[in-house]
## 1
Amino acid sequence: MNARIRWSLDLVRELTRKELKVRYRNSFLGYVWSVASPAAQALVYFFAFKVIVRIAVDNYGLFLIAGLFTWQWFTNSLTVCTSVFLNNASLIKKVAFPREALPLASVLNDGLHFALSLPVIAVVAALYGVWPRLSWLYGLPILVCLQFLLILGFGMLVSSANLFFRDLERLVTILLSIVFYATPVVYRMDMVPERFRTLLFLNPMTPLVVNYQNLLLHGTFQWGMAVLSLTYGLIWLGIGWWVFSRLRWRFAEAL
């Protein structure tokens, strides 16, 4: 392996390890906090939509968990990536290293937490009488890779642009709130009027969330959705890398 590539991989690993240490420093419950937030959200939405509104979705608790854990990785990574270069300003100014390692480590960190939450989803599935399927063995790794690709693209974009447009951090927070309700996390796709369904698929997270839900609830992996997710991932990774490569030479002067 090329020495530079090996050094870059070691750097990403160390940065990811540092992110993990910072997250859990002086934290007694540690890993529990990674699943507590989406689990609490699931309880709130379950009460609101299943108990009060009485939404007609079978195994609604599992349906919510599958969508919310997937969404958490997306929103956590984008929130962290928005300020990742600002938070590491002293490092960027003093040390020569591949800047892309910072957003990459942040996305990997949240991706690791998502992977560690999968056993929790499996436990919830078992409570609903849904047991692991053979399709999980190949479907989940594929979806995790596709989601990583998409989030990294967005992460590269917002982390670079935020250095020159500081209001982007607040804009990302607002957009995430809007996009959440444009993603079928708390409702099924077939509940959306047919004339609006195509619009929902303009949202890159829609095919991912739908695929996760169908895989975990029904054991069905939708290859068409996976191809659409791959397309979105490559497009946004290309856009993110293009913006990053155009701006990285000015990072130090913008900090």
Note: The mean pLDDT is 87.
## 2
Amino acid sequence: MLFWSRMRERVAVDLLRWTPKGTLSRGIGWAARRKVPRPLRRAVYGGFARYVGADLSVMNEPIDAFERFDDFFTRRLRDGARPIAEGDGVVVSPVDGVVSETGTAENGRLIQCKGRDYTIAGLLADAVEARSFEGGAYATVYLAPRDYHRIHSPAEGKVTGYRHIPGAFFPVNPVSVRNVAGLFSINERLVTYLDSDVGRVAVVAVAATGVGWITVAYDREVRTHRSGAPGRHGWAQRYASPRPLGRGAELGMFHLGSTVILLFEPGRVRLNASTGQVLRVGERIGAKALGQREAAA
């Protein structure tokens, strides 16, 4: 039985390799931005929510208030729906989702799943930046279609810059994670760098099939797939004046769903999230690691 299950996975992934994923994703994104007539909205959005298991009780607007499917998919939550954990040096979940992997980046490598790993340098497309996070803690969180799709800051700090990295649009569901080597360093990414109260942090938003684009809250000009933006090699920005971002403050959003990877400097953060754990925005997942003097006290 397991053999046939694995065979079906392999066939599905092989078929996907030949699918024009970029064209498909842009097409889905285009469709998601078309206006939905008000009389159809409850049926369309409600049917989708029932199919994927989305919780609509925490929305801050009526379901028929969303003109487009993308508006519905990137919906805000009502005030207080996601309390932000308090405390000095606390690290919180940036998204609603499930932890697919967590650990320490040994020798500059991150675990994708059992038997597969990839490099920080490949993920960030920057060998110099990668050295800052070698030996540090990391966490990978998968957002399913049912989840809230805005991304929030995991720590108190300032945005120092970002980097867009063009790539493929493979799905990032468990089947693809098990079967596509180096998946997270193949797909399109948008990396936000923070100087925070727990050290330097990289928040990596990984695109996937169906992700029309990724936007950020700290800079209205940052938008993947934007008209006139460099496409083949991506683009990057280092801010002369870093932009403040409170713990739990909105950082950006996926226009349709994907995965977020958090990278921390070595010895700065101790994570307590575990593989398979269901997370909510603002939930404590770790804290600043104690130094020798602090631990002795």
Note: The longest helix spans residues 2-17.
## 3
Amino acid sequence: MAVWAEATRQLVLADENTDISLFSSIIEANTTIPVYMTDADYHVILTRNVQVPKQNVEAFYEKKIARLRETQEPIEVRVSPQLMQYIFYEESNLLRQLRLFPWVQMLVVLSFMALIITYIITSYRNEQNRVWVGLTKETAHQLGTPISSLNGWLELMRTRYPDDELLPDIATDISRLQLVAERFSRIGSTPTLQPADVRQIVEESFVYMRTRVSNKVQMELKIDEPATAANGQTSAIYTTMADAPLMKWVVENLIKNAVDAMDGHGWIGLHVQRNGASIILDVTDTGRGIERKRYEQVFHPGYTTKTRGWGLGLSLCKRIVEEYHGGKIFVHQSVVGKGTTFRIVLSSMLATGAATD
């Protein structure tokens, strides 16, 4: 810009015998840098590469020169001993872009790093999922042979001891084993979702677990009375699209988890309610509680506080509720030493807009 200013001064001072081609070429070479030439009173007398507004030109120049005077020392151009002019200039678009380039480059590098980290984490999680899915399917496969054998022995006992009072109980337990194997085999497969009443799922799971939990554990089931739907179909308020056997598995796992957290004695409460278009199931216990920082960690595969166990229960619950049924399961609240509430949220087939809570 100093060279450009000197060329401008020489061009102004040139007479008819002066070769101005060099000065002109220097001046014309500036096609990007905005330049303002002012008189001694800082009134603009010449501009170059400046986009001037169609209105309020004088105000535009005045504001621009005032700002430039605060940020830079002007280049002085003494045309004569009595005449002083000043040249102000701004950064070109190219210089602005070059100034931003390191930040853009850093952003690109960080983006690549984030992409790589995301890929590694996703690959690790996918590998874990494949391991757990493979494990559940292998478990179902391994259970198939002894279950078939038990069914054969049961039929033999029925023919030899048809009046034995224990046979119905044995048949019930074998059916239960078959249900467990079926549940494991469904993990990793596309579930079959059909209209199901959440109340019935919870009630059947509650009854089944009640007979298998110690009498030292008090269990309570509360189901809010459904609000009347706009079309009068109260029976559908607690209906959702679900794979009933898998959802029963979730409820049973939460109850088992609550029993383990209480060391065999305490209180477990199941509460089914509607909130707008959502069906909510709360499973509350009076167990050890969970630290807030572990609210998400408890759902990770392999996480367990027991000396024995695979740490799959809550992980499978999360997969079944969120991936298969599009719902949510989370630690609603917990106090260490007092207890925990796990909450499941499912979408109702009948959106009423009426809330029961």
Note: The helical segments are 2-13, 21-29, 57-71, 93-160, 167-186, 198-210, 244-261, 313-324.
